[in-house]
Amino acid sequence: MKRTTIGLLAIAMIGALVVAAPATARAPAETQVTIKGENGDFQGKVKSSREPKCTEERTIKVMRVRNGPDEKIATDNASKEGNAYKWSTGNTGEKKGRFYAKAPKTSGCAAGKSKTIRVTPVE
User: Fold this and answer.
1) How confident is the model over 42-65, as pLDDT tens digits?
2) Which of 47, 73, 89, 92 could form a disulfide with 32 if both were Cys (CB 3.0 to 4.6 A apart)?
3) Would you tell me how many other CB atoms lie within 10 Å of the CB of residue 50?
């Protein structure tokens, strides 16, 4: 009877580990993206609690808001400058409209999206 009890306890413990395993998996780290720019020169930062995995060389896409699907107008990879991970597109030639930046989801890192900004021509 003792062997049966030990065997049942072992099976119960293995079952508990299998059930608990998904609960211990790390959730994707939140990603924050900022954007600013005028006259088509966009720049910003990418932040995450899981740096540098979710920030270093993270692809950032600048999107123009349109009726229908939004239009990708530029991309850049974030790089460390001082204490921040920054990105900059240089001058895209896009002088007006509503724009936002986004970082697509990557392994272990959630997608991030900036606020939308409005760019008007500088005169």
Assistant:
1) 999 999 999 999 999 999 999 999
2) 47
3) 15
Q: How buried is residue 83: exposed, middle or buried, by Cβ count under 10 Å (0-12/13-18/19+)?
A: exposed
Amino acid (one-letter) located at 96? K
C-alpha neighbours within 13 Å on the C-beta side of residue 101: 28
Of the candidates 92, 96, 58, 97, the residue with the CA atom closest to the CA atom of residue 73: 92
Write the CB contacts of 101 (distance below 8 Å, at least 6 apart in sequence).
33, 34, 35, 42, 44, 60, 61, 62, 63, 87, 113, 114
Query: E strands along 39-96, which residues?
Result: 41-48, 59-64, 71-77, 79-81, 84-91
> In whole angstroms, what is the distance from residue 24 CA to residue 4 CA?
30
